[in-house]
Specification:
Radius of gyration: 30 Å
CATH topology of the largest domain: Rieske Iron-sulfur Protein
Order of helices and strands: HEEEEEEEEEE
Number of domains: 2
CATH architecture of the largest domain: 3-layer Sandwich
Distance between the termini: 90 Å
CATH superfamily of the largest domain: Rieske [2Fe-2S] iron-sulphur domain
Structural class: alpha+beta
Largest sheet: 4 strands, antiparallel
CATH class of the largest domain: Mainly Beta
Strand order of the largest sheet: 5-6-7-8
Number of helices: 1
Helix content: 10-25%
Shape: elongated
């Protein structure tokens, strides 16, 4: 009995089929893993969508909060949409601008400025805040949330909410 050193055409074809059967699922699995990793780990950054033009502040009066409305672009997954937002803006005698988020820090209710009392009042549970956003009366336990701000001339730009430690 003699051994041949070359494989017959049938054996070569069989090895090729086995390699293809193993390679195709590996390629598909690798592709799916790459897409899943990109979806789960990558942060989609949309240039210019963190800051929103909130308007002209040149006509605002000192120490009198004004509620402003503005449009902010919001990335929701892969879809970018325009969202109507609001903020309470104050300007002090030194022209320092502060912009508060419109939700009470207790449970997120909308609050209002009461000019006669010179304080922000939440109608839901009675929290009260001074013109600087500090808690006067609870149940809220922390000051009003503030937006990051930029002034370009008289144009106010509102960015993401600040951490309470940065205030």
């Amino acid at each position: 009995m003699r051994k041949t050193t070359t494989d017959s055409p049938g054996i070569i074809r069989r090895k090729l089929m086995i390699q293809a059967i193993c390679a195709i699922p590996a390629v598909i699995g690798g592709t799916l893993s790459a897409f899943a990793g990109t979806y789960l780990c990558a942060r989609r950054r949309v240039a210019g969508f963190e800051w929103a033009d909130a308007g002209d502040v040149s006509l605002m009066r000192d120490r009198t909060p004004a509620q402003i409305r503005f449009t902010r672009a919001v990335a929701d997954g892969w879809k970018v949409r325009a969202e109507q937002c609001s903020a309470w803006v104050t300007i002090d005698e030194h022209r320092n601008v502060t912009a508060f988020a419109p939700q009470c820090t207790h449970l997120g209710c909308a609050y209002n400025w009461q000019a006669e009392k010179k304080q922000f009042v939440c109608p839901c549970h009675g929290s009260k805040f001074n013109v600087r956003g500090d808690v006067i009366e609870g149940p809220a336990s922390r000051p009003l949330d503030r937006y990051s701000i930029k002034l370009e001339g008289n144009r106010l730009w509102l960015g993401p909410l600040k951490d309470t430690e940065d205030v």
